[in-house]
Amino acid sequence: MANIRRTIIAAVARNGIIGREGDMPWRLSSDLKRFKALTLGKPVVMGRKTYNSIGKPLPGRPNVVISRQAAIDHSDISMAHSLAEAMDAAERLALQTGADEICIIGGGQIYAQAIDLADRLCITHVEADLDGDASFPAIDPATWQAGEALEVSAGEKDSYPTRYIVYERRRG
To answer: DHFR domain location, by residue (predicted)?
Structure first.
């Protein structure tokens, strides 16, 4: 296997919520800019519900969508039926494009399966407790080492202040 980093990217409310009724329960323009910068040129892996909420392939990135049933007929989408299949496809795409990282971008079911495979978590902690129906798995401090936190106050296009932290998997 090539040395390609597997990174989960998520925005997570204090109470673990990441989504509500197929959408994010916030507007965070500053975080969307960071998300784009983190993922551009790298394969992105997502579940069908996340793809549906976005509504189209993310430009400038190879898109891999996981779905047990539905097929998405789009030239910019690689379909997979499982996370393992998606990660294999994303790795091939990374090797083809020279990317050194695969970005796993949701949703809740995909994060729950992928957290054990990830090398790094890029988490935007949304400073609010919110209602929702999709959540992020607990980040175990025995497994994950938090790096420096970047506090981001809410800009005019942001619903809430955030705290951005990169977690690296502890080795040994």
So the answer is: 5-169
Strands of 63-66's sheet, edge to edge?
77-80, 63-66, 44-47, 101-104, 5-13, 120-126, 162-169, 144-152
93 three-class SS: helix
Beta strands 162-169; 120-126: pairing state: antiparallel
Q: ω into residue 41 within 30 of 0, thus cis?
A: no
Q: Could you give the C-alpha distances from 57 to 25, 63, 72, 82, 151, in angstroms and in order?
A: 21, 6, 10, 19, 30
| Burial status of residue 64 (CB atoms within 10 A of its CB: 0-12, 13-18, 19 or more) | buried
* Residue 2 clears pLDDT 80, i.e. is over it: no
List pLDDT tens digits, range 139-150.
999 999 999 999
